[in-house]
Amino acid sequence: MIKKAEETHELTKEEIVSLLSCEIETENVVSHPLFEAADRVRKKYVGDEVHLRGLIEFSNYCKQNCLYCGFRRDNKNATRFRLSKDEIIKFAQDASEQGYKTVVLQSGEDPYFTADRMKEILSEIKKFDLAVTLSIGEKTFEEYKAYKEAGANRFLMRIETTDKALYLKLDPDMDWENRLKCLGELRELGYEVGTGCLVGLPEQTLESLADDILFFKEINADMIGIGPFIPNDNTPMKDEKGGTFEMALKVMAVTRLLLPDINIPATTAMETLNPNGRLIALQSGANVVMPNVTQGDYRKFYEIYPGKICVNDTPTKCRGCITGKINSIKRSVSTEYGFRKKTD
Length: 344
Ligand code: SAM
Ligand code: FES
Fold this sequence. Notes:
The protein is an alpha/beta fold. The chain is 40% helix and 12% strand. The protein is built from 14 helices and 9 strands. It has helices spanning 2-8, 13-20, 33-46, 85-97, 115-125, 141-149, 164-170, 176-188, 206-218, 245-258, 268-273, 277-282, 298-301, 315-328, and strands spanning 49-52, 54-59, 102-107, 131-135, 154-156, 192-199, 223-228, 288-289, 332-333. The strands form 2 sheets. A 6-stranded parallel sheet has the order 2-3-4-5-6-7. Strands 8-1-9 form a 3-stranded parallel sheet, with helices on one face. The longest helix has 14 residues, at 33-46. It is globular and about 50 Å long. Residues 68-69, 71, 106, 108-109, 135-137, 157-158, 160, 198, 227, 229-230, 232, 269, 304-305 line the site of S-adenosylmethionine. Residues 62, 64, 66, 69, 71-72, 108-109 line the site of FE2/S2 (inorganic) cluster.
């Protein structure tokens, strides 16, 4: 099956389920045939360079109430913050000066940041020779259009799960079909479209994870972010078991096999569960890392889940640290924007 996936980039749902159920030795994870194959496909299609995207976490206010998420509006224990326009622009400028070619602006669904405010921020940031990715949730077509016209290049919005019944339970008041519609509109507007899923949600099955992977292929996503679900004490899901690093890694590796030329980040949540998580992910199919370029205390308040890494570090330290790690596995940091180079 691994050979078939490596050669044809096609698998049936049953085959994906079977691969996801394989045992992983925790001692030497990367030497598992699944991860070795994903690493070869990564190398063949997207090369050895790692794209760094500077992450600016600009607001943790959110009008939504996702049961798993620390930003949910009912979480009264969260210390809420939003950066000023000038702070966001400054952090982007600093990131550009440090050599970043992309910044990712991420927030909860914060109504304060109207399309007009976002447009002002985007047009300033675009002066710094940066590609800009937005990760700010569900908006209207007109809003997405306004951001695009102001210079946004990419948009990340995880579908979270393709199991609609589970989505409905975990994301009350939200509408799975609308999330799908948003992804379609983003594509129509010419964005590079990123999505992804949470791994280890309660009641989530291997079949459902296989559906997620097939969904990524069906919509021909340009980027896929996969992260383990990590229970947050300030949410109704605090007592759930949470996802494992190994399962998230398997979902990621199979995604690489089926979508060989896309961008796949080694996610921060993976490093939260395993101190070498991002390096292992980079050797199992990933080719992107998103170091935090937010400065000051804001980092610790951006608490989606507990145990987030690097909360007391500076952007300079994070960049140096991740560059050293990348070089230690004989890979290099790209100096390009890192758009998807489609092979079909
Ligand atoms: N509001 C934007 C959105 O919904 O796309 C972006 C911010 S949201 C906090 C970013 C991602 O955090 C979500 O897509 C979700 O997958 C992830 N997330 C939320 N709660 C999590 C948890 N408890 N463990 C791991 N990841 C989580
Ligand atoms: Fe809004 Fe998570 S509930 S970002």
